[in-house]
Specification:
11 helices, globular, 37% helix, 10 strands
Length: 246
């Protein structure tokens, strides 16, 4: 289980996160909703060890404290991160990108099993395995990015705005694939602009505003919450208090 406790992040005098706490269990999809600048990306980057700011608090995976660890140590511990913009190696082929995802000792242990699973999940990558990644469409590049992260054999997969720039059809395909990833027992922490589709596949959700968690509930409850509908789902119901789970 990934457990974040009282996490704060500051960039000089600017405080991006203030005492954020959350958890992600194995086989669970958790979505983080918030406006631009709310601190969502800072949260994922702090967990992944690539935050440029000063972080404090605790980040634990299965009891191991990962706060301020180097990114390679965090990958080895079992967290893989797909950043906004995908971050693939554009001049390498699809196959080379996927194999590089398994560079860690952890990735090597599950390499064959994970490669089989990735190619079953994204069969188009079999057809395109020798294609240079930068020549692919945005949706295909996102498949490469997610597949490469899965090759690290993670316990927790983090994704930052994976549907950004994708067509509605590709968005639907993407969220369907994330639901299948959950079936492997992998936990997924998702930052996503498409609140409706992400909540439709998620188990739980958090709301973040100005660097602080302001709401937490089941995804089903969030979908019907008037405040969430107004803020994130295009609803017209007057704003209401966002309920918290006990």
């Amino acid at each position: 289980m990934l457990t974040v406790t009282d996490l704060s992040v500051s960039y000089g005098l600017h405080r991006a996160l203030a005492g954020v706490s959350l958890k992600v269990s194995p086989g669970e999809i958790v979505v983080m909703l918030g406006a631009n600048g709310a601190g969502k990306s800072s949260l994922l980057r702090a967990i992944g060890g690539i935050c440029e700011g000063k972080a404090s608090g605790r980040i634990e995976l299965s009891g191991q404290d990962l706060l301020s660890q180097k990114p390679d140590r965090i990958v080895e511990a079992g967290i893989a991160f797909v950043p906004e913009g995908r971050g693939i190696f554009g001049d390498l082929t699809v196959w080379e990108n996927l194999l590089l995802g398994a560079y860690s000792k952890r990735g090597q242990r599950g390499k064959d099993k994970n490669l089989k699973w990735v190619l079953e999940l994204f069969p188009k990558l079999v057809e395109r395995k020798n294609q240079v990644a930068r020549t692919m469409s945005g949706g295909e590049q996102q498949m490469v990015a997610i597949g490469r992260a899965m090759m690290a054999n993670p316990e927790i997969l983090m994704l930052d705005e994976p549907s950004l720039g994708l067509s509605p059809l590709l968005c639907s395909e993407l969220f369907g694939n994330l639901a299948h990833i959950r079936e492997t027992g992998m936990g997924v922490l998702l930052v996503e602009q498409n609140a409706k589709q992400s909540l439709a596949i998620a188990d739980r959700g958090y709301l973040i505003e100005n660097g602080s968690i302001t709401g937490e509930n089941s995804a089903a409850a969030m979908l019907t919450n008037p405040a969430v509908q107004v803020a994130y789902l295009g609803g017209s119901t007057p704003r209401a208090e966002i309920s918290q789970e006990e």
